[in-house]
Amino acid sequence: MKGTLLAATFTIACSSFFSVAYSATGQDTAKDLIGRYYSSPNDCGRNTQPAFLCQGVIFRATVPSPFYDSWAPSPAAQKSGGTSFSYLREDSKFQKLVREENNGYILYPLLKLPAGKSRYQVLCSFPMDGGTDVRDEKGCGKSDQPNSQPCDKQGIYTGTAWADRYKQFNGQNNNTKECGFDVRDALDQHAVKNFNASVDAMGKVGQAAFEKQNELRIETWDPSRPAAEVPIQAFFYLPTTGGLDDARYDQQRYFEKTAVRVPIVKMTLPETRRQDATFSYNEWDQAINAVGEPVYRYIKSTEWVSRFDPGTNRKEWSLAVTLTDEGKKQSDSHGSDKVYAELLRKEGRDARWTKPANYEAQRNTMRRQLVCHFQIAENKEPWNLEPFRPYVTAREATQAGCNPL
Prior knowledge:
The protein is of the alpha+beta class. The protein has helices at residues 26-37, 75-80, 159-169, 189-205, 207-210, 243-258, 325-328, 333-347, 359-376, 394-399; strands at 12-14, 19-22, 57-61, 82-88, 103-107, 122-126, 181-182, 215-219, 232-237, 260-261, 264-268, 278-280, 299-309, 314-323, 383-385.
């Protein structure tokens, strides 16, 4: 099966208040990803162009936070000079992401970069997670394990040779014993051969490679690079709890910084080696609508109010939350998770809620208070949630009328 490849385009939708830039329509983005997934060429038309320049899906799993941008290089990536991504294709597939994460972003392939997007450099490829955070040479070199230097320095040039070495030395599943294939631009046709060997090694290893994501190291880009220049084609989520909410968070944050509406796509990884990954787009998944407005399906309104609290005997910040009719229906655990995720997206970066020193404690207590209101105050309007309150058990929250001290 091959999807129709569509060139990324930019359109502008105008209202009387703002204009919105689009990376591409969501449906076209999903079709493009499907087409690249099912295309498995040896190169991109020249024997000096590795296939990752034009085909396959390069992506990074991330964890959203109000304190950093998910697409920005982490402190560790800035220090090492390399950032970890994965490569997904019909002949290069796996069933889960690093640390069981469930969302992130997908890069445009280098030969299909739209205008205004910055180039990036793919440095090396590991058929399986290479434990690159403990390697030198931007994550492509040796670790503290013997025989872990790059494959070419050990005379390993094929997928078969890599798989044989893996089976010989990785009985304890120590990924820092693996070697990586150098795929830098300067190697030309050798980069093509090395990348094809990396992909081939996954098939030669078999089930063990399917059970663990592969790894590309990309040279860390300048953290001061404007967000609009980062070559993000889509945000993605896996169909597991929390993935869509986190993708919505990133989409909205990126739009606030760039006015570019990058689509969210659902990426479903295969459960068996006979299955394939899938990509789909649904307008319901989007956190930003067609005219650039945040979409809140469960929360009708929020308002911060400073008021005297008799428990602490001083003024405290309280968040008054009014739910939509759809929000009021979300009474089970999964439903309250969705309401809370939307609340976090709407108000979670406000300084009256989010303080770095107490971030987790504040998130936990606001979540507990929200659930408590679903349980004993569902008909009250609005609900008042206060970040200053301590995190307590569900029983204690109920006994305190959702206002623990």
